[in-house]
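Ligand: iron/sulfur cluster. Inputs:
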Amino acid sequence: MINRRKTRPVYVGNVKIGGDAPVIVQSMTDTKTHDIEATLNQINRLYEAGCEIIRVAAPTEKDAEALPEIVKRSPIPVIADIHFSPRIAFLALESGIHGIRLNPGNINNKGKIKEILQECKKKNIAVRLGVNSGSLEERLLEKYGYPSGEALAESALYWSEFFESVGFTNFKVSIKGSDVLQNIQANQIFAEKTDIPLHIGITEAGPAGKGSIKSAVGLGILLYMGIGDTIRVSLTADPVEEVKVAYQILQSLGLRRKGIEIISCPTCGRIEVNLPEVVKKVEEKLEGEDLPIKVAIMGCVVNAIGEAREADIGLACGNKSAILFKKGQPLKRVSEEEMVDQLLEEIQKMKEEENGRA
Ligand code: SF4
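Predicted complex:
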């Protein structure tokens, strides 16, 4: 069991972050925000995939002007991503937005930041206080020589104290760098000193394959330490992939359960069925299916019996056939040709039983 760090809760719209809430999954659109229809289409796809909070970039006034319509029609709370410009921050705050993300380091004007926070407080808008290795204050770069984990944590602590000193507590913090160790260290230092919720992520992790691995390592270590109230996996890919990977990371640590978990063996010389093909077909057919079950598809009897018994349902393959297991009990022997259909049929029955109970 993972002992999660005790944090104070923050609400972004109706979504609770921190406290006893589960780790919340976020993503960010990659459309031009002023293209309202494209942005909402993407938000809806992300929502379908399980995204719980969405962030949209607001680099120009034109983007900020699109926010009221996006907020009105989005199925999930929307955060406006603001950099450099207090003016755009104020425009966003008039849009009905649920949260804004600010990097105080790149606004660097305490007077303006205080005014923004006062407005957020008045309107009950949450803030994500962002510290990124790419936009660290000059004084910390001089002190540490580079954006080390200590430097990033010091910046986050400094600005958190400033937020609190002006009476603003409705915020979470994100400390992000593209280096995994720097990231872990910075979040760990910060987590030991405050109860402010943390949004964690490995920024600019890279393309889908490599970026997912880097994110799984970095986020997995932090989550295992109990750190992280909300996550975003940053990939150079369709943001829907970010959501899928985020859930896979959380699911592998037992922190969230979303959709069907497939356990399948890597195959070896003992294999006597085309297991990769069976797994591919099952995965395709179950895409988007939200039944919280484990499906084991094993190549031979060596580990199959044990795994199939641990799973809710499974196939223990042998010579051009398999034993179909359900809840630890063998149901029947099925041929290689019919094993996918038979398995899916049983899963369908489980779904109907589950719906009948609901
Ligand atoms: S379950 Fe059987 S086929 Fe699959 S990797 Fe293990 S020994 Fe090989």
